[in-house]
Amino acid sequence: MTTTVGFIGLGTMGFAMASNLLNKGFDVTVYNRTSAKSEELRALGARTASSPAEASRGREVVITMVSNDDSIRDVYDGENGVFAGVAAGTVIVDSSTISPELARRLAKDAEARGAIFLDAPVTGSKPAAEAGSLVFMVGGDAHAAQAIEPVLLAMGRKVISMGPSGSGAVAKLAHNTIVGINTAALMEGFAIAAKGGIDGESFLELVQSGGAASKAAELKGAKLLEQDYSVQFALALMLKDLRLSSVLSDQLGVPTPLLEASKSLYQAGQASGLGELDLSAVAKVYEQWIGRTING
Fold first, then answer.
1. Residue 30: enclosing H or E segment and its boundaries?
2. Residue range(s) defining the domain that contains residue 81
3. Which of 172, 220, 240, 263 is catalytic?
4. Inter-axis angle of helices 283-290 and 257-271, nearest 10
């Protein structure tokens, strides 16, 4: 029997994830705050809902993918929220990047309704979402995660259990701290090379051939040379994640000098109006500082 899924949040990532569920034959009901994306998925066979509650009602699995803590509260709480629609036994999966504190609160609220909440953010930006090669890091009931693994693997390639509720959120913030720092480091290295007169293509070849090789260089290097800052993962969202990670590290008592430096750099990018571009657009901050483009 086909698992029934409610999917809420059809942004850059959510639209591709819901599309993969439909393409794999799942019975999917979708909701998005603006209806245009829902209508696009209707053409692929999705049912559409007028509220998160309606998208959740009668569904065995409910997945949410929205931008931040405030959006999650809007989606889950209130008379039209997810919790108003789910029944006992429903497995709720949030793949957004949110604070561990909020993830734990949602798990308790779900338990009070007889449902199960998993915080299951993903790694992999837009290309991985489209290719169905995301990696899910799951906090919460490991047996529930295993039971719905076919749903998750319709959108990704791996599911990793991280521990109790909130652990997926912690893992995602730690992971994205590395992503933010690595991307900033790549742009800083390119700025040094460009100011020193090194050709961008030659420098990228060196980076990819040596100890500086990284996923950041693989995903962003060629796009940087083309000055292509189309969104795979928005700068504003990276800044949001680094802010959450900064709060978490303070709570844990972990000194994070690289995190704080990188956060300041992305704040400069946001202040320069780059927030809706890809996070690699932080390169433009360096270009302002060195007075030239950094693609050679």
1. strand 27-31
2. 4-164
3. 172
4. 80
195 is catalytic: no
Asked if the structure places residue 295 within a domain, the reply is no
For residue 296, what pLDDT is reported?
64
Please answer whether residues 93 and 141 qualify as being in contact, where contact means their C-beta atoms are separated by less than 8 angstroms.
no
Q: Are 113 and 240 contained in the same domain?
A: no
- Long-range pairs for 289-294: beta carbons < 8 A, 24 or more residues apart: 289/191, 290/191, 290/194, 290/195, 292/194, 292/195, 293/194, 293/227, 294/187, 294/190, 294/191, 294/193, 294/194, 294/200, 294/224
Q: How many CA atoms lie within 13 A of 293 on its CB side?
A: 9
Q: Quick check: 207 and 220 in contact, CB under 8 A?
A: no
For each successive 10 residues of the chain (296 residues), what is the average pLDDT? 90 96 97 93 96 98 96 96 97 97 98 98 94 98 96 98 98 98 98 97 97 96 96 96 98 98 98 98 98 87
122 CB contacts (<8 Å, ≥6 apart)? 13, 95, 128, 129, 134, 135, 136, 137, 156, 172
pTM to 2 decimals? 0.94
Flag whether 296 is in a domain: no
CB 118 within 8 A of CB 168: yes
| Pairing label, strands 134-139, 122-123 | antiparallel
pLDDT score of 1: 53
The Cα–Cα gap between 292 and 113 comes to: 57
Residue 48's Cβ-count burial label (10 Å; 0-12, 13-18, 19+) is middle
Domain termination residue (choose one: 113, 132, 164):
164
